[in-house]
Design goal:
With 112 residues, the protein is mainly α. The protein is built from four helices and no strands. The longest helix has 33 residues.
């Protein structure tokens, strides 16, 4: 069975895209070839599907980290930073209105 797990490991990221039906077909074929005992069929399927989920999670984290790195290098503000800037602009506009003379109209960022 450890040989099967090694083979499964070698499938790498391709395993993350396997559907349950494809895993069943693959395990059925291994049972037919005698590489997996019928009594181990259910456990082997479970192991493969667990491994697929793990690989999918790893891939998701890798992609997420890569995107965050690229966004950071591009100096694109995060959602939190963007919202903080909007709040700061609103506060500055409010302070400007305090110094406004009657009849004057200070344009705001939202007016543009």
């Amino acid at each position: 069975m450890s040989d099967l797990l090694k083979k499964t490991y070698l499938l790498g990221l391709g395993l993350a895209s396997l559907t349950r039906e494809k895993v069943e077909e693959m395990v059925d074929e291994l049972v037919k070839k005698g590489e997996v005992a019928e009594k181990d069929r259910r456990q082997v399927m479970s192991d493969i599907l667990d491994r697929a989920r793990e690989e999918q999670q790893k891939l998701t984290e890798t992609i997420k980290d890569g995107v965050q790195k690229v966004v950071g290098e591009m100096r694109v503000p995060s959602r939190t930073q963007y919202e903080a800037l909007l709040k700061r602009i609103d506060e500055l506009e409010a302070r400007l209105r305090e110094f406004e003379k009657p009849g004057e109209n200070v344009s705001t960022a939202q007016d543009t």
